[in-house]
Design brief:
Length: 337
């Protein structure tokens, strides 16, 4: 096999960063920054894009960066590259500081895996869906496939049933009531839902529901300022058969939360490939009291819950969702050397 030139490697990494821009992030803040050098690519947090009042502990930022890193991995694998990712490598003499991850690539041996190809095809089709889902329940083997997708990056997907589901839903309701009272939260929400003209970030009106705050069966979701997204025609909120799950990390070390972000991306892309609709939800983990309750009553003290997920079949009577905006590549990627 011939060794690819530096230009070929750089072009492959640049293209994969362009694909990774579609990754989800809290409030669509897109808190990532990439630095491309001659033989490697570094991922950094864009510190100006943190949500200090919503995401006090900085987990949302790490999860968003983890999603971008996983999207990048999928894009590379789909184009025949093997990526070697080192999380938090030392970077003593570079002005950018220590990256979250460093990626090096070489041509992969063998063909592209069918699953990778399906995940790559799901990148543009995945959208956060805050509408009512259908009344069809999600079978155990499908939930099992989502759990399998999470595992290579250290994440475990716990689906909540029965009494656990009731406790989980109660914690979500309480978090939805309490978080808006926390200092600075409402201003931050306003800032990321009312962007200046030409901004290519934040949550646009087309992704926010037009009606009152969403509440499906026992589930109360994060409230966003009223938008233009319509519920599917017909159907009632009590018919929504969403499953409620929580993704946990090994612990709360930044590298574990970053890797859980990779698991989150893997679950979301797998779900999209299987035709499911998803809503990632961190609100219940951003209020200290509901987070601790979830940890003790639903998950168990040995794992760290990092993001909740609502998963279900989309209603057949809903309009297609529009993609939310993303910043252009040259705002996100710096090339050095
Ligand atoms: C870590 C994380 C936390 C999120 N938390 C919520 C949430 O609590 N409620 C919600 O409706 N959406 C939540 N989202 C979805 C984002 O708002 C969404 O990804 C972003 O607006 C981009 O839109 P898209 O997913 O349709 O591409 C979250 C996403 C991530 C990655």
């Amino acid at each position: 096999m011939t060794t690819p030139t530096t230009d070929t490697v750089r072009a492959a990494l640049r293209d994969a960063v362009a694909t990774s821009l579609r990754a989800p992030s809290e409030h669509n803040a897109q808190p990532w920054r990439w630095v491309l050098a001659s033989d490697h690519l570094d991922l950094h947090i864009d510190r100006g894009r943190r949500l200090p009042f919503t995401d006090e502990r900085g987990h949302g930022v790490l999860l968003g960066c983890g999603c971008a890193l996983h999207h990048l991995r999928v894009a590379l694998a789909d184009r025949g590259w093997h990526a070697r990712v080192r999380h938090q490598p030392e970077n003593p003499d570079e002005p950018e500081g220590r990256p979250l991850a460093r990626v090096r690539i070489r041509p992969a041996e063998g063909g592209v895996d069918k699953d990778v190809h399906q995940q790559a095809a799901a990148i543009d089709r995945r959208h956060t869906d805050r509408r009512r889902f259908s009344s069809r329940s999600v079978p155990p083997d499908v939930l099992g496939a989502l759990g399998d997708a999470a595992r290579p990056f250290g994440g475990v997907l716990h689906v909540a049933f029965g009494a656990h589901r009731a406790l989980f839903a109660e914690a979500m309701r309480e978090a939805a009531e309490r978080q808006p009272e926390q200092e600075g939260y409402a201003a931050e929400l306003y800032r990321w839902t009312h962007r200046y003209a030409g901004a290519r970030d934040g949550i646009p009106a087309a992704a926010r529901l037009e009606g009152p705050p969403p509440s499906y069966r026992d589930l109360v979701l994060r409230w966003f300022p009223r938008g233009t997204l319509r519920q599917p025609h017909g159907g009632m909120d009590h018919e929504d058969a969403s499953m409620l799950a929580i993704l946990t990390a090994v612990d709360e070390e930044p590298v574990s939360v970053l890797r859980a972000g990779e698991s989150l991306s893997a679950v979301l892309l797998e779900a999209t490939a299987l035709g499911l609709a998803t809503t990632p939800i961190t609100q219940v983990l951003e209020v200290a009291e509901t987070r601790e309750r979830l940890r003790h009553l639903v998950v168990g003290a040995h794992r760290a819950p990092v993001v909740a997920l609502r998963i279900g079949w989309p209603s057949e009577r809903g309009d297609p969702l529009h993609p939310t905006p993303r910043r252009p590549l040259d705002h996100v990627l710096t090339e050095v050397d």
